[in-house]
């Protein structure tokens, strides 16, 4: 035999519990369909134990046996039930203020609940700390197969009353009814998860769910949609030819904004794009071409502020440069939204309405943006010219440094960061 507790336990409302799962003991679920009304064991993994005393400390002991112990005739009330823990089991006081781990194996047990002087405890109702013990109880566990609960000994009027309570409760659900209830609960949880997911997605996309095509793209499509959802929707509904034309136009517009059209080898890439050809060398080697962008003295250097306004030293040419790659994306819609996002970054903080207005002017089928009032909105005023860094001094001849070149290229990124 192993003694878990021998002393006193706090009760309130004449209750103390054994819990092994997340669910709090429910009196109806614990006693429904039982013969006894002192040890409610019908709720899986839970025991709902009744005491005579309403509030205060009662004598309480818990024992774990290897087999059924004999019934001590000194106990006035004795009931038995079956119990199987669904997790670590503990004796828990009302409100969870105290608990004692029972160390039960996750197998079927028989539990015997014994009590004495329940009527006296009920008559006293409340016991203060300086008053002597009134009623006391014993809880015994041992391994045993499941069996119906039973009343072994009943003496007090209090116990008689509680034994009558289960008969006033509706019968427990059948296995089929429990399975149906679990299915309904599972379906309700699934619907709640789906509802929360949809609401989160609606918030992310500006209050309206995206089409399947836009949902596939996410990334830059979501970033642009947060700035101008009607434009992104119109792009998604446009045909592939229009999407590709938008991508090409935005590519050239971003390069113009960043003065990359003045750089001969970049101008050659734009010309190849216009002819429907693939990118010419050195664009076949992404590391090499980024290194050339950052080291070529013919490439202008101007700074812009990031779209979120948090960084004011973004190199405009590096922000625009990814459009040259995005324009050649096999998916024309992805090409359109990716080039738009790079152009937004290249234009700088607060200037994206200018870009979007120009896109709509060139491609009128993409529609006119409206605010919630239904009125056309005016593009925000430019934030001002981008400030340029100090002129670079003439470069002195130096040995080729492959390691340094690779390091600079590694620090570069093909695509500016996209909000998630």
What can you tell me about this protein's structure?
Strand 7 and strand 8 form a beta hairpin. The radius of gyration is 38 Å and the shape is rod-shaped. With 420 residues, it is α+β, with helices and mostly antiparallel strands. The chain has 2 domains: 2-172, Substrate Binding Domain Of DNAk, Chain A, domain 1; 229-389 and 401-411, no CATH class. The protein has helices spanning 27-31, 118-124, 157-164, 175-204, 212-217, 219-227, 229-237, 240-257, 264-274, 286-295, 316-320, 323-326, 332-347, 352-362, 402-411, and strands at residues 2-11, 15-19, 39-40, 46-50, 56-64, 77-83, 90-93, 99-101, 109-116, 136-143, 150-153, 303-304, 314-315. The longest helix is centred in the middle third of the chain and has 30 residues, at 175-204. Residues 370-420 have low confidence and may be disordered. 38% of the residues lie in helices and 16% in strands. Residues 402-420 have a biased composition (Low complexity).
């Amino acid at each position: 035999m192993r003694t878990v507790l021998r002393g006193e336990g706090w009760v309130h409302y004449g209750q103390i519990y054994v819990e092994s799962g997340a669910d709090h003991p429910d009196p109806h679920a614990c006693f429904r369909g039982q013969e006894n009304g002192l040890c409610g064991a019908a709720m899986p993994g839970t025991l709902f134990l009744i005491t005579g005393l309403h509030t205060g400390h009662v004598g309480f002991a818990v024992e774990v046996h290897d087999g059924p112990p004999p019934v001590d005739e000194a106990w006035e009330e004795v009931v038995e039930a079956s119990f199987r823990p669904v997790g670590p089991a503990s004796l828990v006081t009302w409100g969870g203020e105290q608990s004692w781990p029972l160390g039960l194996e996750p197998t079927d047990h028989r539990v015997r609940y014994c009590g004495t002087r329940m009527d006296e405890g009920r008559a006293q109702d409340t016991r203060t700390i300086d008053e002597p013990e009134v009623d006391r109880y014993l809880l015994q566990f041992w391994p045993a197969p499941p069996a119906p609960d039973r009343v072994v000994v009943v003496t007090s009027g209090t116990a008689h009353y509680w034994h009558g309570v289960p008969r006033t409760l509706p019968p427990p659900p059948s296995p089929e009814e429990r399975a149906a209830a679990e299915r309904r609960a599972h379906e309700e949880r699934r619907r709640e998860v789906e509802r929360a997911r949809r609401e989160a997605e609606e918030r992310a996309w500006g209050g309206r769910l995206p089409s399947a095509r836009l949902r596939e793209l996410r990334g830059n499509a979501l970033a642009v949609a947060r700035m101008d959802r009607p434009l992104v929707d119109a792009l998604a509904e446009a045909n592939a030819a229009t999407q590709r034309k938008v991508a090409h136009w935005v590519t050239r517009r971003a390069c113009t904004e960043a003065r990359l059209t003045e750089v001969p080898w970049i101008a050659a890439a734009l010309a190849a794009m216009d002819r429907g050809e693939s990118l010419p060398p050195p664009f076949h080697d992404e590391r090499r071409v980024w290194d050339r962008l950052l080291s070529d003295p013919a490439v202008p250097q101007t700074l812009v502020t990031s779209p979120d306004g948090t960084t004011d030293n973004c190199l405009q040419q590096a922000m625009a440069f990814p459009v040259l790659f995005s324009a050649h994306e096999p998916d024309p819609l992805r090409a359109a939204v990716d080039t738009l996002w790079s152009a937004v970054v290249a234009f700088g903080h607060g200037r994206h309405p200018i870009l979007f207005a120009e896109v709509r002017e060139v491609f009128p089928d993409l529609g006119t943006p409206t605010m919630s009032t239904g009125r056309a909105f005016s593009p925000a005023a430019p934030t001002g010219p981008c400030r340029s860094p100090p002129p670079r001094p003439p470069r002195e001849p130096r040995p080729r440094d492959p390691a340094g070149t690779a390091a600079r290229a590694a620090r570069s990124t093909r695509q500016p960061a996209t909000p998630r």
